[in-house]
């Protein structure tokens, strides 16, 4: 009977089934373990085989390690041997170099003394240079001290070298001085080249600086003494004498420096050597230029001249500005214009040459420029010459303006204006000529401080004295309402204003760069502004006194009556009459006035005419028919054509007049009129 059959109930059967499943799981686990054990044995066998191979590799590695240790030992041994050989080689090479250099030192010293005995200074100096170029360790070393002395030269090498160099330096100095005194430039150049070879560069530069200073001093003295040998070239007979002497001084210095600079820079330290020379030469320049300036100052009696110039009161100019209705006071002139002009020209030459010399040095050796600005000459210029220049330039200009105003004449009656020959008074050309000359002198002086001080002074003279005189002449010659003189001086003086401002601006711009010289720009702006203000005022004066009356007469004469025209009689001669009267008034003006002045006159007149015509048209209420409106439009168009001949933009002043006329003709337009004015304009025509 099976176990399952013995189960009496369902629960017993389920319990039996559970036990069977547990037993099955145990059997399965046992089988898995057995299977795993077989694989482990296989792996273990693999490990045993790998162990055998690894053991063989370890034996091989041990053998290689032993071989490497042996190789490293051999390598270190070889390296040490190589280093020892290299060390021995370098020591041998150094020893050989030391021996060679010591032999070269000995040979150079022997050759130097041999050349000195033969007075072959170039070879001696070159041998000394070879010795000095050797390393100091060789020249001062104990080996050289033992090996170089000879029976003839028992001293240590540096003792022999220094002794010979000192002897040669002293000899070169004597020979250089002798050659310089005899002006043998080939010998001067010869010995100048030798100083740096023996290590006495500074001595050479000092000797050369002394030589140039001697040349400068000698030439300066000879120039100042020239007057005693040449009666035709003395301070009294030649007003440019001291200026030329001063100029020659700097020209000679510049020529000498330029000629010898290549030699100096080739044999001495480039740049710094010439800088030292320039700085030392400047000391002699200070002395000689100071002597020239002091002599010039005394001979030209500058103290007296400046005192007279400063005390001059410009009586004639004051009379023109203030006392125009009185007799001019008699002028007892103590300050001579010609003398002041000559001194100023001479002073300009001096300042110009100093500026050119500074520019020359700045371009070639800019490092030396600082010493020039700190020199005694620059201090003397700042203390004496610049103030003197300002005083003299201002006097010459203002006195010239005074003379020009005093001698002023109007052009002949009947003259007409031309661009090539403007219709102006004679003082314009005189003043402009002097102004150009003086501004060119200021520019030629090459001194920024003088420009900064002189131009504002000139501006004050132009705006105050010159323009003030023209303003007074305009005021005194202003026409009255009863005058009918179409060639009034008043118009000429208006031309003077505009031509003066244009000429002044042109002159200043041709001499100075206005973008870089603020004082020049201020001068042009100030004079132009004042001239324009005076011109506007003058044009208003002439318009009020003359043109307004004549234009009013022209308008009332031409435009009278109504515009009630018939189809058979639809022509109007009003514009023709106006044109004739207008041309009669303005054509003479156009022949006399500068175009700019004439344009201002016409502009004022056009505005006034427009107001008169507008007033006349408003008075035509119910006096214009259809044909009359057409004629009115033609007349106004002709008037505009006549008035705007010289300037088309003058039509803008008649905008209101034209729009009123168009509204009278029933045209639909946008206007600048008010609504009421538009309404009234449309109802003028019947």
TrEMBL record:
<keyword id="KW-0653">Protein transport</keyword>
<feature type="domain" description="COG4 transport protein middle alpha-helical bundle">
    <location>
        <begin position="161"/>
        <end position="475"/>
    </location>
</feature>
<dbReference type="Pfam" id="PF20663">
    <property type="entry name" value="COG4_N"/>
</dbReference>
<dbReference type="Pfam" id="PF20662">
    <property type="entry name" value="COG4_C"/>
</dbReference>
<dbReference type="InterPro" id="IPR048680">
    <property type="entry name" value="COG4_N"/>
</dbReference>
<dbReference type="Pfam" id="PF08318">
    <property type="entry name" value="COG4_m"/>
</dbReference>
<dbReference type="InterPro" id="IPR048684">
    <property type="entry name" value="COG4_C"/>
</dbReference>
<keyword id="KW-0333">Golgi apparatus</keyword>
<dbReference type="InterPro" id="IPR048682">
    <property type="entry name" value="COG4"/>
</dbReference>
<dbReference type="GO" id="GO:0000139">
    <property type="term" value="C:Golgi membrane"/>
</dbReference>
<dbReference type="InterPro" id="IPR013167">
    <property type="entry name" value="COG4_M"/>
</dbReference>
<comment type="similarity">
    <text>Belongs to the COG4 family.</text>
</comment>
<keyword id="KW-0472">Membrane</keyword>
<protein>
    <recommendedName>
        <fullName>Conserved oligomeric Golgi complex subunit 4</fullName>
    </recommendedName>
</protein>
<dbReference type="GO" id="GO:0015031">
    <property type="term" value="P:protein transport"/>
</dbReference>
<keyword id="KW-0813">Transport</keyword>
